[in-house]
């Protein structure tokens, strides 16, 4: 499920993500495709697959920009991000081995590490540590947070009982609770992201058609910089990425994320509380990413 890492680990894609390192997959996005049932006027060759047209998911602003809670020093945040990347490397190595040429998931994670300027020595140390580390297992906890928001909490642990107790404690302390069935409200999808200022919306649509993507959406990264997300089937991530790179595009990240099918609209107080909860979860050493379905009131 979550082993096919994207960045995204807790604020990730994505998200969202892959925000990359934070994994908040629900960073506010806005589809740049015309809403159904509009039909694209650009003539297509018979051999080219049409894009799936969809309406906007939610407002195009970053919901976390309204949160008053001030993050710690940049160096501390950077250290936490690199720690999450190390966990994602461990997951990828555990699933497909330490050679990125033979392990495409590891290759994706390493690309995200480099895009965030993670030192080469730290990357190599993380790979070696993953090979030597004792067996660990992945789990996805399902929870509800402030205002009824939904959370998927991806963890990597060598002690399931201890991890379960810690996640439960953090939820109870910050207005959340474990809740079965939450995963039914999220959809697993492939996402290839690139900087949003580099091309126009019209060009993005043309690229999506040429690359075989199903949709294009506008989003923001952790620094509130615009992103273009090319949405595709999880099995087509590598193909879409390769096609975009062949067309001359600079890819920021690629991988698999969990996108919410329904959204929880929170007021400012609930948004503050939810941010505190998600920060507490992300600070847990065994948490890789947290996916949420939060949408701030416009």
Task: Kindly describe this structure.
The protein is of the alpha+beta class and 298 residues long. The chain folds into two domains: 74-132, Orthogonal Bundle (Arc Repressor Mutant, subunit A); 137-292, Alpha-Beta Plaits (2-Layer Sandwich). 33% of the residues lie in helices and 22% in strands. It is built from seven helices and eleven strands. It has helices at 74-96, 104-115, 120-132, 160-173, 201-211, 237-246, 268-283; strands spanning 30-31, 137-144, 150-157, 177-178, 186-195, 215-220, 226-232, 251-260, 264-266, 287-292, 294-296. The strands form three sheets. It has a five-stranded antiparallel β-sheet. Helix 1 runs antiparallel to helix 2. The longest helix is centred in the first third of the chain and has 23 residues, at 74-96. The radius of gyration is 18 Å and the shape is globular. It starts with 29 loop residues before the first strand and ends with a strand. The relative contact order is 0.22. Residues 1-29, 38-61 and 68-73 have low confidence and may be disordered.
Structure described in brief:
With 298 residues, the chain is α+β, with helices and mostly antiparallel strands. The protein has helices at 74-96, 104-115, 120-132, 160-173, 201-211, 237-246, 268-283, and strands spanning 30-31, 137-144, 150-157, 177-178, 186-195, 215-220, 226-232, 251-260, 264-266, 287-292, 294-296. It folds into two domains: 74-132, Orthogonal Bundle (Arc Repressor Mutant, subunit A), CATH 1.10.10; 137-292, 2-Layer Sandwich (Alpha-Beta Plaits).
Described by strand count, sense and barrel closure, the largest sheet is:
5 strands, antiparallel
What are the low-pLDDT stretches, counting only 5+ consecutive residues below 50?
1-29, 38-61, 68-73
CATH fold name of the largest domain, please? Alpha-Beta Plaits
Strand numbers in spatial order across the main sheet: 1-6-7-5-8
Mean pLDDT: 77
Morphology: globular
Strand content: 15-25%
Query: Helix- and strand-based class?
Result: alpha+beta
The CATH architecture of the largest domain can be named as: 2-Layer Sandwich
Q: How many H/I helical runs?
A: 7
Number of domain modules = 2
Task: Please identify which CATH superfamily of the largest domain we are dealing with.
Answer: YebC, transcriptional regulation domain
The secondary-structure element order is EHHHEEHEEHEEHEEHEE
Total strand segments: 11
CATH C-level class of the largest domain:
Alpha Beta
């Amino acid at each position: 499920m979550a082993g096919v890492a994207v960045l995204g680990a807790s604020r990730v894609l994505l998200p969202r993500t892959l925000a990359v390192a934070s994994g908040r997959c629900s960073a506010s996005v806005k589809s740049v495709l015309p809403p159904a049932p509009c039909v694209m006027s650009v003539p297509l060759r018979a051999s080219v697959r049409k894009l799936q047209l969809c309406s906007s998911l939610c407002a195009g602003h970053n919901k976390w920009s309204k949160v008053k809670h001030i993050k710690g020093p940049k160096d501390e945040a950077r250290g936490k991000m690199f720690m999450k990347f190390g966990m994602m490397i461990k997951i990828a190595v555990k699933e497909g081995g330490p050679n990125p040429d033979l392990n495409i998931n590891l290759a994706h994670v390493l690309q995200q590490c480099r895009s965030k300027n993670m030192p080469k020595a730290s990357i190599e140390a993380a790979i070696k540590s993953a090979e030597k580390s004792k067996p660990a297992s992945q789990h996805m906890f399902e929870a509800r947070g402030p205002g009824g928001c939904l959370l998927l909490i991806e963890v990597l642990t060598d002690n399931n009982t201890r991890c379960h107790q810690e996640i439960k404690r953090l939820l109870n302390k910050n207005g959340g609770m474990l809740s079965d069935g939450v995963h039914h409200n999220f959809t697993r999808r492939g996402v290839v992201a690139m900087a949003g200022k580099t091309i126009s919306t019209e060009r993005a649509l043309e690229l999506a058609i040429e690359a075989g993507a199903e949709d294009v959406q506008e989003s923001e990264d952790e620094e509130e910089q615009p992103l273009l997300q090319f949405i595709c089937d999880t099995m087509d991530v590598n193909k879409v990425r390769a096609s975009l790179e062949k067309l001359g595009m600079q890819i920021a990240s690629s991988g698999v994320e969990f996108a919410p099918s329904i959204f929880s609209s929170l007021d400012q107080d609930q948004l503050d509380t939810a941010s505190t909860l998600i920060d507490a979860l992300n600070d847990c050493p065994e948490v890789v990413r947290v996916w949420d379905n939060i949408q701030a009131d416009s």
